[in-house]
Structures are given as C-alpha cells and as structure tokens.
Write a structure and sequence with these properties.
single chain; 307 residues; alpha/beta; Ribosomal Protein S5, domain 2; seven-stranded mixed β-sheet; five-stranded mixed β-sheet; 6 helices; 31% strand
Length: 307
C-alpha cells in the first residue's frame, strides 16, 4: 500500500534497464562533430555511466553529482580527466522513462544535439524496450524544505508532499524586456507525462547569446532552424511547439540534473529561474540533508529519508 505522511515505509518499483541496445546519431551542438551514442543494458546497481569510446581504454564517467564540473549553460561530468559535456538531455530521457541502469557509449566529448530536446533519446529508449530487474530502486523521500539560492533572485526549493512520486514546477521569468514572456510549467513526472508533454521541448537561447557562443567557437554547424533562437520579435526561422515550451524545457533540464542524485526523488521541486549550476547545488544539499539515511537498511525497506 502507498505510504502515509510520516510513515517510514514506501512501496518501491524495481530497478530497470533497457531491453536491448539502442542508438542515436547526429551532430554535436558544441564542437560540431558527427556523434554516435549507444544505450546498452546494464546490471542492477550499475547506475548511469557515460563511456568515451573515442578514447583509449574507453574510460567511463558515472552520472552523479560528485562528478559534475561547473560550466555555464550545460551539465558536464568528469572523471580522471575524461569529460562528457551537455549530458542533461540524455539524462532527462533516461530518468523520465525510469531507466536506472544503462551504459551510455559516445564517440565524442558530447552527445548528439539532435533538435535540442530529449525526444530522439526517449524514442530510441522506448523502442528498445524497458525491463524490470531483481533489485529495488532507492528512493529519497523529502521531508521539510531544502533550498538552494543565489544572489540573482534564482532559487530551487525541494518540499515534502503527501503523495508518491516527483512533481516539478519551473517558473521562467527573464524580465519585462525579454522576448520570452514569463510563464510556468508544472508536472508530476511519469514516463507517460515525460514522453507526451516534455520530451519534445527544445533548448532555446537569445540571439545575442547565440552570437556570443559562436564567437567562442561553439555551435559552428548550427543554424536557427536547429534550435530555438529568440530575436526581439520571437523565434527566428522557427516556431514553438507549445506556448510554454521554454518552461517545459527548463523543467526537462531539471529532470536530467536531479537524476544526478542517483536514486528516485519523492516530493515537489520548485525552481525559479534556475539553471544547471543551481540544479546541481540542490542535489548536493539534498544528499547532505539525507546524509544519515542515504544508504538504506532492511528496516527501512530501501527507503532514503530526510532527517
């Protein structure tokens, strides 16, 4: 039976992996290389690990917050000098579809950018199939408030809820002079919701930001048709897939970044104008808040609780 507020027992789903190998190919957004990414099944408790097949001995990097490297506009993980950049859309697809154990092979420093969303990754995973494994999935059940904030008025707050599962709300507001109007997206995260409501939402940037990135050598092979670039009058050479697509994509980013905690979350995460750095910080603070309960024991049936 589902837990009641304050009880220590939570029903757990089984860990899951993909049923067979899946592949996505495309151009990397940052470096412009032709990239091939493979999803491969993995044993229980393997977690998500990215493997650089273009490097000698194919080194791997665990997709955990402990391996993140501070970087603007993207989530980067690194282990022993091996780096994978812009992993958030792949992580969102895996977490959104509840794939807990997967070896992700990539032959470049970044995954293929595709259209700036998670839909290509999610479709590949869904078509490969997802299978249950013989170990329970660990869960962090949030109790009380955990907050990460900066001095620019952005914050992420994790709160307790009376129901099972994870709910995420993203409040987007770039100010009255921005071509992107303020709006909010809020969803309880399930595989069905992820596939139907979130996976299609794309990366977006302002025209001035895109120009600055190209001046730094990024995105040399990208055009305005490849992702959503906002000019003063709205998207350039492109159309939004939903009126709140930008907030949905920010919420998608949150899913990918929150997955770096390495287990399921149960609670409500509310993000106001946050980006990848603050998302990673809330994950660190959640792990710190759960430090005495993070590794389950038989008496808690695998549950991880906040003190």
């Amino acid at each position: 039976m589902p837990h009641q507020r304050g009880e220590s027992y939570v029903e757990h789903r089984s860990q899951q992996t993909i049923a067979r190998e899946a592949e996505v190919a495309g151009v990397g957004f940052l470096w412009g290389a032709d990239v091939r990414l493979k999803f491969l099944p993995a044993e229980p408790n393997y977690g998500i690990q990215f493997v650089r097949t273009d490097l000698g001995n194919s080194p791997s990097v665990p997709a955990l917050v402990e391996f993140t490297v501070p970087q603007e506009r993207r989530t980067v993980i690194e282990n022993g000098g091996t780096r994978i950049e812009m992993i958030e859309h792949v992580m969102a697809a895996l977490a959104g579809l509840q794939v807990d154990n997967c070896r992700v092979e990539v032959n470049a420093p970044e995954p293929p950018g595709c259209d700036g969303s998670s839909i290509f990754f999610a479709d590949a995973i869904a078509q490969a199939g997802i299978v249950a494994q013989d170990q329970p999935r660990k869960v962090v059940r949030i109790q009380g408030d955990v907050v990460a904030a900066d001095d620019r008025g952005t914050d992420v707050r994790a709160q307790a809820v009376a129901h099972d599962g994870l709910e995420i709300t993203y409040e987007l507001d770039y100010g009255p002079n921005s071509p992107i109007e303020a709006h909010t997206a809020s969803y309880r995260i399930t595989p069905e919701t992820f596939l139907n409501e979130l996976a299609f939402s794309r990366t977006f940037v302002l025209e001035a930001e895109a120009d600055a990135l190209k001046a730094q050598g990024y995105g040399a092979r990208l055009t305005a048709a490849d992702l959503v670039i906002f000019g003063q009058d709205g998207p350039i050479e492109n159309k939004l897939r939903a009126v709140d697509e930008c907030a949905r994509h920010k919420l998608l980013d949150c899913i990918g970044d929150l997955a770096l905690i390495g287990c399921d979350l149960q609670g409500h995460v509310i993000a106001r104008r946050s980006g990848h750095r603050l998302n990673a910080e809330i994950v660190r603070r959640l792990k710190l808040a759960h430090s005495t309960h993070f590794f389950p024991n038989p008496e808690t049936n695998g549950e991880c609780r906040a003190a």
